[in-house]
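Project standup — Tuesday

K.O.: blocked on the structure for the chain from last sprint. Re-posting the sequence here as requested.
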Amino acid sequence: MQSVAAEVVSLLADVAPRLARIAAFIAIGVFAANLAVAFGLIRYVAGLSGRLTRPANLPDEVGTAILTTAASTTAGYATLAEYRESGLLDDRATLVAVVINTFFGFVQHVFTYYIPVLIPILGVETGIVYVSARAGIALAITVTGVLAGGVLLSERNVNREALAAIDATGPEGDDRTGRERVREAGATSWSTLRRIVPRLALVYTLVIAFVTTYDVEALTGVAEPITGVLGLPGAAVPVIAVYTLDTTAGAVTIAGVDAGTFTTRTAVATLLIGGILSFAVSTFRRSIPFQYGIWGAEFGTKVIAVNTALKLVFISVAVTLLLAPVW
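H.V.: unblocked you, prediction finished:
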């Protein structure tokens, strides 16, 4: 009994400093991110969106929806749904607009999740490379949407007469004072931390306990033929398995593996592969309820299919480039 208690104390002593450091960085990052959102930084980044619509043969008003997506994914999609329902965009034009939306939806997550949460967990180098890879994937999908619009869309896909019935003025002005913005950012940050940190503490403790108690390399040796082909260590298997169920937990898992097991490239590739496998889970957990709620079942299924297919293609390309032996 005493030995068990001693092991628990030793485990907590090992976990507490790491967890405190990560939690501190997350707290600072989340608050800074919410300040950026409150003071409109994301809207400035999204201001480029309007320039993408003309080469894609879409009306400038679609840029409003893209801009809105950078601040609120739900609001952005709802705006596009309004354009479709009003007849401004047909189904093909709407799908192109949804694809173009991808990078600007990613921008929101950079400020609200990747910088304040994921990078502190993964470490600066691995975190920045991973976020850069995700940004490149999102940007490639957006560029694909622009090119597809230029080829597949024409005036037949857009009914500009429907604009008369649409309020396309964009988001209303924000008249909050600076103090109110800071206070709201603090409240939002506290809510986020209460949700993330307890789960992070539990997962991190369990991961450290697992890798301390068991020989991860031995347990995952059966996967060596698969991971060997990809150039990944056997320890990638549990990381991918956890990441498939929960992104943050997957990041915590790979952060808890012994130093030297992963290089930066193999760590990022492992997380991206986990992202591919997580589509099945995220589709049922998030995509279907959200997309069906916005578009209805029939068109929502098309949106999910297009989004998933493009992500699979470009994540696969990114993994191939990361694991290529030429650099």
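K.O.: great, moving the ticket to review. Residues 167-171, 219-223 have pLDDT under 50 and may be disordered. Residues 2-38 form the longest helix (37 residues).
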